[in-house]
Amino acid sequence: MDLRQVRYFVAAAEQLHFGRAADRMNVVQPAISQQIKRLEEELGVELFDRIGNEVRLTEAGRQILPECRRLLRQAEETVRVAKSAGTGTSGRVSFAFVDNAVCALLPPLLRSFRDLYPEVDVQLQSLSRAEQQAGLEDRRIDIGLMPGPAPLSVLSEPFVSAPLVAAVPRNHPLASHEVINLDQLAQDRFVLFPATMRSRLLEVIIAACATAAFTPKVAQEALHIHTILALVDAGVGVTLVPPWVAREGVHAVSFVRLNRPTAFYELMFTWRKDNSNKAVESLRATAQLISLPEAIPRLDRAS
């Protein structure tokens, strides 16, 4: 049984006339008669009583008519879903990100994406750079937002990039300064990610301190950026963060620019080279459209 036979049967059942059904389907009448006969042979039952020029549905015909209508609706919906998925306007996308993106980057991105693509189901995961790389390789995620440089095994494009800023408690002697030298924090204790995380942010911080001729003294280690900022708020120590984390009012923390900028810390979208999920392209395109706070420098899309 193919969909053409089903369509011809429904047309004939609704018209109760093979000629009018043929006109409706824009075919010749013998085509309608032939396909319905084949359908009856395949099902092993007669669907119409043929009395002269009149046709009436048999009991079997009446029973399968609503099922055939439902089948055609489902076929149309299947085509619609396939076409939408093929253009990235529906479907599902698994999106992973590092936790520092939560502060100011994800809210505008996800709001805009849901407005533009309401039929795409976004599954979110907060994962480290290493976890995202593994997730892309074993296909647990479709796209990641991770610190650069991106692995050579995936495709990537930059999203945001900027030097770090100092985060100090509100009562710190340098809290009211607009700009400081990093070596002014040499005697402070730092709150950092543990070295075992292999965090790109930690790498940039350590390198910046080395350039300023000191090694940061660690007061406390933490696994998440919000925990680090909470510990700075509590006076446990100081740290360096990307500017998109620098949101006044969330914690009692002051954010101060550095006179000599650190190396740039960047976040990049990454996805598999054999990706076929068009929603990944839709998410990346949305990221280029959103308005970010002025303090967050955006990078141009990679060619």
From TrEMBL:
<protein>
    <recommendedName>
        <fullName>HTH lysR-type domain-containing protein</fullName>
    </recommendedName>
</protein>
<dbReference type="Pfam" id="PF00126">
    <property type="entry name" value="HTH_1"/>
</dbReference>
<keyword id="KW-0238">DNA-binding</keyword>
<feature type="domain" description="HTH lysR-type">
    <location>
        <begin position="1"/>
        <end position="58"/>
    </location>
</feature>
<dbReference type="Pfam" id="PF03466">
    <property type="entry name" value="LysR_substrate"/>
</dbReference>
<keyword id="KW-0804">Transcription</keyword>
<dbReference type="InterPro" id="IPR036388">
    <property type="entry name" value="WH-like_DNA-bd_sf"/>
</dbReference>
<dbReference type="GO" id="GO:0003677">
    <property type="term" value="F:DNA binding"/>
</dbReference>
<keyword id="KW-0805">Transcription regulation</keyword>
<dbReference type="InterPro" id="IPR005119">
    <property type="entry name" value="LysR_subst-bd"/>
</dbReference>
<dbReference type="InterPro" id="IPR000847">
    <property type="entry name" value="LysR_HTH_N"/>
</dbReference>
<comment type="similarity">
    <text>Belongs to the LysR transcriptional regulatory family.</text>
</comment>
<dbReference type="GO" id="GO:0003700">
    <property type="term" value="F:DNA-binding transcription factor activity"/>
</dbReference>
<dbReference type="InterPro" id="IPR036390">
    <property type="entry name" value="WH_DNA-bd_sf"/>
</dbReference>
<dbReference type="GO" id="GO:0032993">
    <property type="term" value="C:protein-DNA complex"/>
</dbReference>
